[in-house]
Amino acid sequence: MTFSSHTWAVLLAAGSGTRLADACGGRRKQFLEFQDLPLFWHSARTFARVTAIKGLVFVFPPEEIEACAAQVRALDAANSLGLPWLAVAGGTRRQDSVRNGLAALPHDCGRVLVHDSARPFMSASLVQRICVALEAGAQSVIPALAVTDTIKRVSGGLDGGRVAATLLREELAAVQTPQGFDLALLRQAHERAETEDWQVTDDASLMELAGSEVRVVPGEACNVKITNPEDLRLLEEQAMPEVSVTGFGYDVHRYAQATENPKQPARPMVLGTVPIPGAPEVLAHSDGDVLLHALTDAVLGCLGKGDIGTHFPDTDKAWDNAASSLLLSEVLLLAQREGLRLMHVDLTVIAQVPKLAPHREDIRKSVANLLGLSAAMVNVKATTEEGLGFTGRKEGIKAVALVTGLRQLP
């Protein structure tokens, strides 16, 4: 397993989409629009919300590469991903397009996620699960769903063919993307595929043929692939009444050096996923990101769904040292299901130390990326309490968050 901490994503948008061509007037499905944005851009925005993803490679049709790259530049200028990105030309087959995308990855990339842009509904939580499994040492990771229908092997086709066997449903799974890999091993598998003329439909199959272990994480029922004409209904906007909602969040963490006999471990300070060098360590069950904790509570406030302690209790070992961005992603997925669209976020950090002015813009951009908002719709402030109270005595830090959004009426 490569020990580089850098993970990039390769986003495949070079397919011809022949099964949808007539229904789409000859337009490639990855360029269809949903909520006024092309399908491939929805996946790009989701990747950008996961802090483990450090960059993106878009793979476009060779004959449209210049126009597509210009479109990405325009989309990124209007609502920045906050990530470096590259655009490369695809190949004849899917595996050729993947190989071209892998060739463009930077030298310090050690892991890669490969995703089909025709799956625009994946969540940041799914991406996070795959990244966590790779960071734990997996060579290959795929999301999969249990098969609920009885599956039969048929000879002679569906029109007049005969059943050859009934397969064990317990041993079957429907596989999705993104799929995650150790980059060096995936490149080796692609080299063998080219030399030995392997024909596959996904990269996990290449890894299986190359003898690598492929692990499975839970997929998502909503992570559907736009493939057939009937799938286009998923892109239809449903006119639903919306109301304006507001959520308030508040969180506090003690500093480690100001506490005798602490009951929680000391964590390096991060705010909005941004490390704060030289800052006091904080006591926390998770990673102690006080700003994201307050923000998560504010989003839950918009939903009327309790607080962060209810959903992620500090008695649950599963959240020990968990990235607060993961907790936020879980709540954002809930917000998506509940029909909540975030519109604006106002955040305030209250602390005597450290000084946060040098980090304010980095925090603002990071939070904007996590929420899928323009940085112009995220405000971050820092203040002191003039030496008063526990923050004034440099014993801790606190944060407040105000979130406004639009929510569909039930």
Task: Walk me through what this model shows.
- The protein is of the alpha/beta class and 410 residues long.
- It has two domains: 230 residues, Spore Coat Polysaccharide Biosynthesis Protein SpsA, Chain A (Alpha-Beta Complex), CATH 3.90.550; 167 residues, 2-C-methyl-D-erythritol 2,4-cyclodiphosphate synthase (60s Ribosomal Protein L30, Chain: A, 2-Layer Sandwich).
- Helices cover 28% and strands 27% of the residues.
- The strands form six sheets. Strands 1, 4, 5, 6, 7, 10, 11 and 12 form an eight-stranded mixed β-sheet that branches. A four-stranded mixed β-sheet has the order 13-20-18-19. A two-stranded antiparallel sheet has the order 2-3.
- Helix 5 packs across helix 6 and helix 7 runs parallel beside helix 9.
- It is elongated.
- The relative contact order is 0.13.
- The mean pLDDT is 90.
- Keywords: Isoprene biosynthesis, Lyase, Metal-binding, Multifunctional enzyme, Nucleotidyltransferase, Transferase.
- It catalyses: 4-CDP-2-C-methyl-D-erythritol 2-phosphate = 2-C-methyl-D-erythritol 2,4-cyclic diphosphate + CMP; 2-C-methyl-D-erythritol 4-phosphate + CTP + H(+) = 4-CDP-2-C-methyl-D-erythritol + diphosphate.
